[in-house]
Specification:
Blueprint (H helix, E strand, L loop, with lengths): L1 E3 L13 E3 L1 H11 L4 E5 L6 H10 L7 E5 L2 E3 L6 H9 L14 H7 L3 H11 L6 E3 L1 H15 L9 E6 L8 E6 L9 E6 L2 E5 L19 E4 L4 E9 L5 E9 L16 E2 L1 E3 L11
Parallel strand pairs: 3-4, 5-6, 7-13, 11-14
Antiparallel strand pairs: 1-2, 7-10, 8-9, 10-15, 11-12, 12-13
Helix pairs in contact: 1-2, 5-6
Length: 283
Amino acid sequence: LYRILHAEHPRTGDAWCIYPTYDFAHGQSDAVEHITHSLCTLEFEAHRPLYDWLVEHLPVPSTPRQIEFARFNLSYTVLSKRRLLKLVEGGHVNGWDDPRMPTLSGLRRRGYPAAAIRDCAERSGVAKRDSMVDLAFLEHCVRTELNQTSERRMGVLRPLKVVIENYPEDQVEELEAVNNPEDAGAGTRTVPFSRQLFIERGDFMEDPPKKFFRLAPGREVRLRYAYFITCREVIKNADGEVVELRCTYDPETRGGDAPDGRKVKATLHWVSAPHAACAEVRL
């Protein structure tokens, strides 16, 4: 219940040599602070009889109760503070709030909403038996929360230039885009549309396989909130890399629908090249 150590203490010097153990101090500290329920992980279950005995037989002002529950374990994730401390002290990560760390501050920097973490914990529940929560389930909760609350924006990570040959060179249109299709109250915004655009490089293939429905030579696709475009020409550099696409657009399809009812199998996100803003993206 206590240790005797004849050594100088940094605060009290050599005035005291008896130091209580965790078991001796736990219940009394809770009682003095008027804690009603002390929640511990399962490894403290064997300590509960001693916790209860000391609270019952010592002159403390209240009677707290210890309750044990299983740890929250994530698959493929190290949650031990002792092991995470080695990563921090060894310089393998940039502190406790490094986005790679499974800490609350790290998850915050990674973009995980607090509501998604709470939702995952609530849906996983409290149990008496150790279990493992799949990391994919946490990510599912994050996607669900972001899908309901986040405003949409368009961006491209690996830009490929698109020139719409039959669009006026000096014309810029302001097209209406929905902020959040899951929340009508989020309203709309306007996005500029011009003759030169950027699309994602992965959204084009010069020789597409059978089930590739995005842009290819001679194929028509929809630009989100904008028009139908058709790829007419592929321009390459000296190394044979595709650097630009020459396309045409159908001015009757503004907003993404064709008056004649024809359908396309793919919708691409895009940004207007003259209005694009550079951004740092951490993946």
